[in-house]
UniProtKB/TrEMBL annotation:
Protein name per the record: DUF4190 domain-containing protein
Keyword Manganese in annotation: no
Species name: Marisediminicola antarctica
A Pfam entry, by short name: DUF4190
Lineage of source species: Bacteria, Bacillati, Actinomycetota, Actinomycetes, Micrococcales
Ranges where the DUF4190 domain occurs: 36-94
This protein's UniProt keywords: Membrane, Transmembrane, Transmembrane helix
Length: 124
C-alpha cells in the first residue's frame, strides 16, 4: 500500500487554460438560432411578391421584433424583415384607405343611385 503522504503530485495543468489533447471533442457545436428572424424576412419577401395583405406583414413584424430580442445572431435578418414588413403594411393600409375613399365618392356619384335605393326601400 502506498502512503498518502508520499504519493506523487498530480501533473501540473497547462497555464494557458487549453486542453493538452487537441483531438478531444468538446461537444457538438450548434449553429446560431435565427428562426424567428429568418421567418420575418421570408414573410416580408412573400408579401412583396404575392400582393398586399394586412395579416402577413403584422405576423412578420411580430416575428421580427421577437427575433431582435431573442436572437442576437440574426439581428440583420430581423431588421430587414421588420423594415420590409413595415413598408408593406403601410402601403397595404394606404391602398385600403384609397379604395374605401374612392368607393365612397364614386358610389354616390352614379346618376340615379339615390333614387334607385329609395325606390327599392319603398317597394319592399
Amino acid at each position: 500500500m502506498t502512503d498518502p503522504q508520499n504519493s506523487p503530485a498530480p501533473p501540473p495543468q497547462p497555464a494557458s487554460g487549453y486542453d493538452t489533447n487537441p483531438y478531444q471533442s468538446t461537444g457538438i457545436s450548434q449553429a446560431p438560432e435565427r428562426g424567428l428572424s429568418v421567418a420575418s424576412l421570408v414573410l416580408g419577401i412573400l408579401s412583396l411578391f404575392f400582393g398586399f395583405t394586412v395579416v402577413v406583414p403584422i405576423v412578420g413584424l411580430v416575428l421580427g421584433a421577437m427575433g431582435l430580442r431573442r436572437e442576437p445572431e440574426g439581428r440583420t435578418f430581423a431588421l430587414v424583415g421588420v423594415w420590409i414588413n413595415g413598408a408593406i403594411l403601410f402601403l397595404g393600409l394606404v391602398v385600403i384607405v384609397i379604395v374605401i375613399v374612392a368607393l365612397s365618392i364614386g358610389i354616390f356619384s352614379i346618376p340615379g343611385f339615390i333614387e334607385m335605393s329609395n325606390a327599392a326601400v319603398l317597394n319592399a
